[in-house]
Write a structure and sequence with these properties.
By secondary structure, the chain is mainly α. The protein folds into two domains: about 280 residues, no CATH class; about 50 residues, no CATH class. Strands 1-4 form a two-stranded antiparallel sheet. Strands 2-3 form a two-stranded antiparallel ribbon. Helix 1 runs parallel beside helix 10.
Length: about 350
């Protein structure tokens, strides 16, 4: 049975990795703002079916101010600023280079979690962050001033997405697909509106449909497939498979766009593999106390926290309803995850 979620994780990685070379091709006809808007609108289209299955297109209630603030901040940082910075960098550099730089998102997420969100990162994890930065500097320097500018823009985009990952991880009343839908609608609409105000949309219907399709596959269906795979494989195994996404992007950049891979690309790729391995091996276990309380939030019954039953509902299904938590003390094992959707449980994976 494990081969099926592995296939889902691989497909998610391939779809996400293909976004960079596809975006490079689309930037020939669209501005960064226009393309960012269309990609995220397409992402909303690609996640709407899963969101409807997981309880509808819900938003945090007016009384749930903290989750509304987190969602709005994630939209601005991860949905508006992140893609604009990425596509601006993609204007200046090859798709292969940008695909490699996207490995910085994992390092940025880990570093931000330690500094601002009370996560823990050991010596091996910090070494992975340093190696990631070293690989980025090597690749940027090899391309001269344009490479340094492009690398800096992609680094800032990865910092935005790292912050976005932490913010969305704190939203406990929405599923990942629901978050992806609303982020796509709101951020996509904002970027597209700015793009249309700055420049006319002088492209034909095929380009528009292609941009929406790339968004639906790479920013919508990819997230749905990844989360489904992680629910069955666990976050660690799913993340190991998904970490192939940037390298799939490099391969497609060379095969489809005809880009040449230099020695700097190969050395940086080797360093990023080492850095990702160190970050993925990073884990910690701590004792956690849950006080007795009653509330409503999104959960599944295979997460080590919720053992109440629903007739006809699979344990792995995400859903929300009011329920009571009893007082419990148990250990959490924590693994890093690119999208910061950690798999917690009372025992190590």
């Amino acid at each position: 049975m494990l081969k099926y979620p592995i296939v889902m994780a691989l497909l998610a990685a391939a779809l996400f990795g293909a976004a960079t070379p596809a975006s490079k091709w689309l930037l020939a006809d669209l501005t960064p703002f226009q393309l960012a808007g269309l990609l995220y609108m397409g992402g909303a289209m690609g996640s709407v079916a899963a969101a409807l299955r997981e309880g509808g297109l819900r938003l945090p209630s007016r009384a749930d101010r903290s989750n509304r603030v987190r969602l709005c901040a994630a939209v601005v940082v991860g949905g508006v600023l992140g893609p604009i910075l990425l596509l601006s960098g993609l204007h200046l550099a090859s798709a292969a280079s940008v695909s490699l730089w996207l490995n910085l998102e994992l390092a940025a997420t880990a570093a931000l979690g330690t500094v601002f969100f009370r996560d823990r990162l050991g010596p091996g994890g910090w070494l992975g962050v340093v190696i990631s930065l070293t690989a980025s500097i090597l690749l940027s320097s090899a391309a001269g001033s344009a490479g340094l500018a492009a690398g800096s823009l992609v680094l800032l985009a990865c910092v935005c997405w790292g912050l976005d990952n932490h913010l969305t991880a704190l939203i406990d009343t929405m599923t990942p697909s629901q978050i992806a839908f609303w982020k796509g609608i709101m951020a996509g609409g904002a970027n597209l509106g700015v793009g249309l105000s700055l420049a006319p949309l002088n492209v034909g219907l095929p380009i528009l449909l292609a941009a929406l399709l790339v968004g639906a596959c790479s920013y919508g269906a990819s997230i749905v497939l990844y989360v489904a795979a992680a629910q069955r494989l666990g976050a660690t195994r799913a993340q190991v498979v998904f970490s192939s996404a940037p390298f799939i992007g490099i391969a497609l950049s060379a095969a489809v766009l005809g880009e040449t891979l230099s020695m700097a690309h190969l050395l940086s790729a080797a360093l990023f593999v080492a850095a990702i391995s160190l970050l993925l091996m990073e884990r910690h276990t701590h004792v956690h106390v849950h006080e007795a309380l009653g509330h409503e939030h999104v959960h599944s019954h295979d997460d080590g926290h919720h053992d109440h039953e629903h007739t006809g509902l699979a344990a792995k299904s995400c859903h929300a309803h009011p329920h009571e938590h009893e007082h419990v003390v148990h250990a959490h094992t924590h693994w890093p995850d690119l999208f910061h959707r950690h798999k917690h449980g009372p025992t190590p994976e």
